[in-house]
Each structure stands twice: as structure tokens, then as C-alpha cells.
Fold this protein.
Amino acid sequence: MAAVLIPFILFDVVIMSVVVWYLLQRRKLRAARSGDTTPAVLDLDSLRALAGFAKEQHEHIGQFMRTNWSGSPEQLPGVLTALLIELERDARTKGLAVDHGAIKTMLGASLRAHKIGSPHDVRGALDKVA
């Protein structure tokens, strides 16, 4: 029974790590631009909310992609654009202050976990999405 839970636990750890890393990098970049030398304090409540949002949207992302994407790499940027718009709307509805880049990072991690598309095609499509 425990062996069945291992992939879900690993996925949760990967998503959480990606979100934490991304937020820390943005905070460092923002502090460097403003000339602030004091370390930025990370709001753990918003981080937990973002990780929970990523976990709950994972299944939705898989369903959306299976329903709307035919498997053609040329179609992928359009489908991802529609999905990003939907994810950003859902995040705003839940009161999360998440920027576009964080949502794209979360989406890329979820697509890799679902093994949807080749990593090269997904990365290229996410780069094309505004």
C-alpha cells in the first residue's frame, strides 16, 4: 500500500521544491534590483497556499490537456495559453497573489509529472506563451 503512495509523495515534494526555489529567486532578484541588502522574508502562509493550489490543480491540468490537446506540437502553445489563463483566473479567485511566471513554472512541473508531450516541446511551447 505504501508503494502506491510514493509517486504522489515524490510529486508533492517536486512541486513544493520548484515553487520554493522560484519564489526565493524572485525575492533575491527583486532585492538586488532595489539595492536592498537585507534578506527578504518569505511569507510561509502564501507559500503553503501556492503549494496547495499547485497540488489541487495537478489533476485539472491533466484532464484539460487530455481533453483539449490532440498531441500535435504546433497546437501546444495555444492550448497552454488557454490553460494558463484559466489557472491565473482560479488563483485570483482563491485570493492568491501569483505572477504569470510562477504559474508557468507550476504548469511545466505538472506537465512533466503527467508525462504530457516531450520535455523539449513543452519547454518550447511555454517559452512561446506570453
About this structure: The mean pLDDT is 83. The longest helix spans residues 2-34. Residues 90 and 96 are 9 Å apart (CA to CA). The two ends are 42 Å apart (CA to CA).
